[in-house]
Every structure is written in structure tokens, then in C-alpha cells.
Amino acid sequence: MPAALVDFGLYFFHCAQRQIDAGHGPYFYLPKLENRYEARLWNDIFVMAQELLGIPRGTVRATVLIETITAAFEMEEILHELREHSAGLNAGRWDYLFSLIKTFGHRTDFLLPDRAKVTMTAPFMRAYTELLVRTCHKRGAHAIGGMAAQVPGKDPAANEAARAKVRLDKEREAEDGFDGSWVAHPGLVSVCREVFGGVLGERPHQLDRTRDDVEVTAADLLSVRRISGPPTAEGVRTNIAVTLRYFAAWLRGQGAVALFGLMEDAATAEIARVQIWQWLRHRVIDRETVSGLLDDEVAALGAEYPWAPIDEIRALFERTAMAGELPLFLTPDAYTRHLVKRTEAGA
């Protein structure tokens, strides 16, 4: 049984009515959707679950995270399929770029530079987020901005720099018409609230900003060539370092972990490792360079995390980032090899 359906069923059975009685409701977040057909499936699930438990149809509310390139072309259709239950759409970043490489990574005109250079102000990302606001507000749905991944630390100067980055990011979103946003760390909620409060005032949203001025074409959503280019040595090293450290945390049971001042999850490891794969495929970096950096970072990981299963982590990286064919996700391979308990033959 798909884990998403098991999780939904257990939660809905045990908690839906409790949430309603508490003045809230069964609210869900739908990530990774690729198209309107998946949205239709979830709508059917919501309808059936409400009928089975005698909960009024339309009580469920779901926010869809648009974080795949295919879903960006079907935002209006996704809202339509979930119209009885839709709370709006949310803009993603790392998974969106990950999806872009998975879909078009074999083409040289979709060669992305260092992750740090692909900001939300990149032309194709700007086209996607502005289209999201226009699409949502056209249909009376909320548009939710992307996550600010910064995590406060012990260094006051670094914290101030992080807060400044978050403020700029949220100012852009609020000015573009987003109705809300989110952050990775509760210490940054005040920045987000302050920025959106300054734009919204007493209003709960800005659905009245229909953004009719926005005109986005399919070509705009795919205009990667305007920022395409080879990676820097530091960019390659950073991707390797982050991927290895996330693998170490993931194999230990942590789904999200703070790395280098940012809250990282599986999406970070996915974009980092597929970038390595893309750069190797198009020979903008060579295997010897990657192998050398991998040696360095594996050694650094072993010194930093003496408990980490170094050989397993390295092998996982080589299989998912350096193979000839790109594994679509790192998790199925890792689940099968590392998280499935096996009984020895004859035991």
C-alpha cells in the first residue's frame, strides 16, 4: 500500500473529527504532484473518506506544493480538480530544480550552474512564481511562498546576515502578491510576519491582486539558458559535502538536518546529487575531479561524524550521482539496501 494513503487513512480516521471539534479541520499538504490526474486521485480520496466517516463533503482542505516542472504547466487544472477541497498552491524550489534536471537533464540547454546561483529571481523561476500567484488569485485560492531555509546559529553576525536574506526573500513574495509564506526555523517567523504584515495590514490575504499584468508562456517557464553555465569547483564540492552529510543523517533516521546554516531535507540531497550527475553527463567536470573531491569529503565526514557508515554513504553517492543512468530518486535504492530488515536464510 502506498505510504501516503496509509498515512492519510490513519490520520483521517483518528483525527479528522477531533480537528473539526476543536474548531480546525482536516488540512493536508500535497507535495510532489506531477499533473492534474494525481490531483483528481486525491480529490476522489478526500470525497470517499468524508463519505465513509459522515463528514460533510468539502470539509477537507489541501494545499498543493508545485515543485515539479510538469505541475507548473497544469496549475489551473490542479486547482480545478481539487476545487471542492483546495486551499491554494505553494511554491517550491529545490524539488522544482530537481524535477527540471530529471526531466531535461539530458539536454545541454538545461545545464544549471551552482545551486547558489539559481535563486528565485532567476528568469524561469520568476516566471513560475508569478504565474502561480496569478493562477491562484484568478480562482480565489491562496498563493503561498517558498521556504526560507536559513537556520539561526550562535554567530550574531551570521544570524543577522541570515535574517537579512530571509527579509529580502519575503519582501519579494509579499510584493509579488503571495498571501503568506513559511520558514524553516521558528526563530525566523517574526521576520516573515513583519514583512507580510507590512504589506497586508489588517487583511488576511491579497486575493484582490489578480496580477493580470503577468503574462507567462511555456518558453518563459523553460528559459533556463539565460542562466545556464558550468559549475565552479566550490559548487561541486558543496554539492558533494551536503549530499554526503544528508545521507549520513538520513541513514540515522533524520529526515531534516541543519547543514552549513541551512535546514536541508531530501530535496536538497536530490538536487545536489542530480547536479553532479548532469555535470558529469555533459562533461563540464570529469570523473577524476569528482572522485578526488569525494575522497576529501568522505574523509572530512568520517572525522566529523565518527559514527557514520562511511562505506555505505560513499556507495550510495556513487550509485545515485555517478551512474551512467540517473536514478529518478535516491530513496528507493536507499530504502531497499539500508532500511529494510532482512532475516538470514535458515534463521
What's the structural blueprint in terms of helices and strands?
Blueprint: H1 3-21, E1 27-30, H2 36-53, E2 61-66, H3 69-72, H4 75-81, E3 86-91, H5 94-104, H6 123-138, E4 142-148, H7 156-176, E5 180-183, H8 189-200, H9 218-221, H10 233-251, E6 257-259, E7 262-264, H11 266-281, H12 287-304, H13 310-321, H14 331-339
Parallel strand pairs: 1-2, 2-3, 3-4, 4-5
Antiparallel strand pairs: 6-7
Main attributes of the structure:
347 residues, alpha/beta, TIM Barrel, Malate Synthase G, Chain: A, Domain 4, 2 domains, five-stranded parallel beta sheet, two-stranded antiparallel ribbon, 14 helices
What would you say about this model in short?
The chain has helices at 3-21, 36-53, 69-72, 75-81, 94-104, 123-138, 156-176, 189-200, 218-221, 233-251, 266-281, 287-304, 310-321, 331-339, and strands at 27-30, 61-66, 86-91, 142-148, 180-183, 257-259, 262-264.
Tell me what you see in this structure:
- It is a single chain.
- Helix content is 54%, strand content 10%.
- Helix 2 runs parallel beside helix 4 (75-81), helix 5 runs parallel beside helix 11 (266-281) and helix 10 (233-251) packs across helix 13.
- The chain has two domains: 3-140 and 207-224, Alpha-Beta Barrel (TIM Barrel); 231-339, Malate synthase, domain III (Malate Synthase G, Chain: A, Domain 4, Up-down Bundle), CATH 1.20.1220.12.
- The chain is α/β, with parallel strands linked by helices.
- The chain has helices at 3-21, 36-53, 69-72, 75-81, 94-104, 123-138, 156-176, 189-200, 218-221, 233-251, 266-281, 287-304, 310-321, 331-339; strands at 27-30, 61-66, 86-91, 142-148, 180-183, 257-259, 262-264.
- Strand 1 (27-30), helix 2 (36-53) and strand 2 form a beta-alpha-beta unit.
- It starts with a helix and ends in an 8-residue tail after the last helix.
- The strands form two sheets. It has a five-stranded parallel β-sheet with strand order 1-2-3-4-5.
